[in-house]
Design brief:
This protein is of the alpha+beta class. It has a domain of about 100 residues: Arc Repressor Mutant, subunit A. The protein is about 40% helix and about 30% strand. The strands form five sheets. The chain has an eleven-stranded mixed sheet, sandwiched between helices. The longest helix has 24 residues. It is globular, with a radius of gyration of 28 Å.
C-alpha cells in the first residue's frame, strides 16, 4: 500500500508542480594565485620581492576601478557608493529597474568597502624563508547588476584587491523564464515563482536541462567584462558552487485551497520531524560522530509561516508564496555534504569510480539536482502522511487488529503501550530507513529484549505489513504503509492525546 501524495489527492485543486533551481551563488577563483603558496611561487617566478606584494597589487586595483568607470560611462550610469552597511542593494536595483525597464543590459553599479581575502608578507626567522600567508583585509568592491538574455537578473561582485575572488548570482526561475520565452510557452512569474504556466510538463523538462558547459561560457564572459585583469596571469577562472537552492513548487488554483491545509502541515511537521528524519530526507544516515547542528525552526513572517529543518550546511524549508504556492526548498552551502559515485583521481595518477563526497565545481550541478529533487520528494511524501486524516484513522485501526496465520493469532500493536512505542520510535530511525535493519541492529535500541524476542517481533511486524524482508538476505525495511501508519499513530499520540491528558480537564 503506497502513500498517495497530496499532489495526487488534491490534483483538482492544483494548477501544476514544478521543480527548479532557485538562488545560485557561484565563486570564481584564479588557480595560480587563489592561495598563498601559489601567489608566493608566482612572485618568485616574476622576480618580485615578497615584501613588495602591496606595490605589485596596486596596479591591478587601479585597473579594476578604471574598468568600472568605463562601463558606467558607456552605459550612462553613475557608480553609487554605499556608505551604510545595512543599505539594501535590492531596493536600489528595483528603483533602477523601474526607471530603465527590464530589457537586457547593465542596470546599475554599486560600490562598498567590504572584507576581502588577501595575503601578508612574512619572514620566518627560524627557517630563513620569506613568503605570503593568508590574511583578512578590506577593500573596495563593485557590484555589477545586469540582465542577461539567458540568466535574467544577475550580479557580479568584484573585489579590487588580489586574489580577486569573484561572486556571481543568478536565479534559476529567471533562467527558466528566458527558456520558456524562447519556446513560446506562456507563463506568469511573480518574484521568483511561477503562478501560471501553459505547459507544466514541458516546462519541467526544460528546467531539468541546465547545460553546465553553456553556463561555464557565460561565467567566463562575465569575468572578461567585469574583471579583465585575470588575463595577466594566463589562466581562466575556476567556477565552484558556493550556495544553491532547489525548489519544488506546488501551485494551487485558489488561495483558499492552500490555506485549508497549510497551517496543519506546518504546525504538525515542526513537532513531528526528528533529527534522524531530517537525515532520511537528505539521503543520509545520522551517525553518532556527526558534529554538525541539526534542528527545526518555526518562523512567523510578514509573508506567512515557515519551517526550516537543518543538518550541518544543508537546510530544508517549507513555506508558502503569495498564499498560492506550497514551496519545499533544499539549500546547500557545502556540496561535499553529499556523496555520490564519481571518478576519483589519486595522487599517483590512477583513477577509480567510487562513493565519494561531491566536488564543489559547477560540473557537479546535474547530479546535485537529482539529489535535491529526491530530498524534496521525500519531504513531500512525509507531508502527505500528515495532511490526510485517513492515515491516522483507517490505518491505525488496521495496525491494532490481530493477524491469523496457519491457525496462530498474532496480536496487533498498541501505541499506548510503552514497549510498542519504543519499537516504533526505533523503526523510524534514519539509518534504518536508508540501510535497513536486522535483529542485531534493532536490539541496540531495545536492550531489554533477547534475540528470540526480537525475532518474534520482526515476524509480527512482517505479518502486519509494517516491514518487508530483502530477498535472499536478513535485512528488513520499513514499508511505505509502515512509515505511513507509524508516523500518523505517533503524531496522534504525541500531539493530541498526551497534551490533552496533561493539560485538559479529566471528568
Amino acid at each position: 500500500m503506497g502513500i498517495q501524495l497530496l499532489t495526487e489527492r488534491l490534483k483538482d485543486q492544483i494548477a501544476g508542480v514544478l521543480g527548479c533551481w532557485d538562488r545560485m551563488l557561484i565563486f570564481g577563483t584564479l588557480p595560480k594565485i587563489c592561495y598563498a603558496e601559489g601567489m608566493t611561487s608566482y612572485l618568485y617566478a616574476k622576480q618580485v620581492r615578497i615584501f613588495d606584494y602591496p606595490k605589485f597589487a596596486e596596479p591591478f586595483r587601479d585597473r579594476l576601478r578604471e574598468n568600472a568607470e568605463q562601463l558606467a560611462a558607456a552605459n550612462g550610469i553613475k557608480i553609487q557608493f554605499l556608505r551604510k552597511r545595512n543599505a539594501r542593494k535590492e531596493d536600489l536595483v528595483k528603483e533602477a529597474l523601474a526607471k530603465r525597464g527590464e530589457h537586457p543590459g547593465l542596470i546599475c553599479i554599486l560600490s562598498a568597502m567590504e572584507p576581502c581575502s588577501t595575503y601578508q608578507p612574512w619572514h620566518d626567522k627560524a627557517t630563513g624563508k620569506t613568503f605570503l600567508r593568508p590574511d583578512d583585509g578590506k577593500c573596495l568592491h563593485y557590484y555589477f547588476y545586469f540582465i542577461d538574455e539567458e540568466l535574467g537578473l544577475c550580479y557580479v561582485r568584484v573585489p579590487t584587491w588580489l586574489p580577486c575572488r569573484l561572486q556571481i548570482y543568478f536565479n534559476g526561475h529567471h533562467w527558466l523564464a528566458a527558456k520558456l520565452r524562447r519556446h513560446n510557452i506562456a507563463y506568469k512569474l511573480m518574484d521568483n515563482a511561477f503562478v501560471e504556466i501553459a505547459d507544466w510538463n514541458r516546462s519541467q523538462q526544460l528546467a531539468n536541462g541546465l547545460e553546465v558547459q553553456r553556463l561555464h561560457g557565460k561565467l567566463d564572459q562575465f569575468a572578461r567584462t567585469y574583471c579583465p585583469i585575470h588575463r595577466d596571469f594566463g589562466v581562466q577562472y575556476h567556477w565552484s558552487v558556493d550556495q544553491c537552492e532547489y525548489a519544488t513548487d506546488v501551485v494551487f488554483r485558489r488561495q483558499a485551497d492552500l490555506a485549508a491545509i497549510y497551517d496543519t502541515l506546518t504546525r504538525t511537521a515542526i513537532h513531528t520531524v526528528k533529527p534522524d528524519n531530517i537525515a532520511t530526507f537528505l539521503g543520509r544516515k545520522l551517525h553518532p560522530q556527526f558534529e554538525g547542528e541539526t534542528g527545526n525552526r518555526y518562523n512567523i513572517r510578514i509573508e506567512g509561516t515557515r519551517i526550516k529543518h537543518t543538518m550541518g550546511p544543508v537546510s530544508l524549508k517549507l513555506y508558502d508564496k503569495f498564499s498560492l504556492i506550497l514551496r519545499i526548498e533544499t539549500t546547500v552551502n557545502d556540496l561535499t555534504f553529499f556523496k555520490h559515485y564519481r571518478e576519483v583521481e589519486h595522487r599517483d595518477g590512477t583513477k577509480e569510480t567510487k562513493w565519494a563526497p561531491m566536488q564543489k565545481t559547477i560540473y557537479s550541478l546535474p547530479p546535485l539536482r537529482e539529489l535535491l529533487e529526491a530530498a524534496n520528494r521525500r519531504y513531500l511524501e512525509f507531508l502527505s502522511t500528515l495532511e490526510d486524516p485517513r492515515n491516522g484513522r483507517d490505518k491505525l485501526d488496521k495496525l491494532s487488529q490481530p493477524v491469523t496465520r496457519e491457525g496462530r493469532s498474532y496480536p496487533g500493536f498498541n501505541l499506548f503501550d510503552s514497549d510498542d512505542d519504543a519499537l516504533f520510535q526505533s523503526l523510524l530511525r534514519g539509518e534504518f530507513n536508508i540501510s535497513g535493519l536486522q535483529n542485531k541492529s534493532l536490539r541496540r535500541f531495545l536492550p531489554d529484549l533477547s534475540s528470540g524476542q526480537v525475532s518474534r517481533l520482526l515476524k509480527r511486524l512482517r505479518l502486519h505489513g509494517l516491514i518487508k524482508k530483502v530477498a535472499h538476505g536478513y535485512k528488513y525495511y520499513v514499508t511505505t504503509f509502515g512509515k505511513d501508519v507509524i508516523t500518523a499513530g505517533l503524531k496522534l499520540r504525541e500531539l493530541v492525546i498526551i497534551p490533552q491528558l496533561a493539560y485538559g480537564r479529566v471528568a
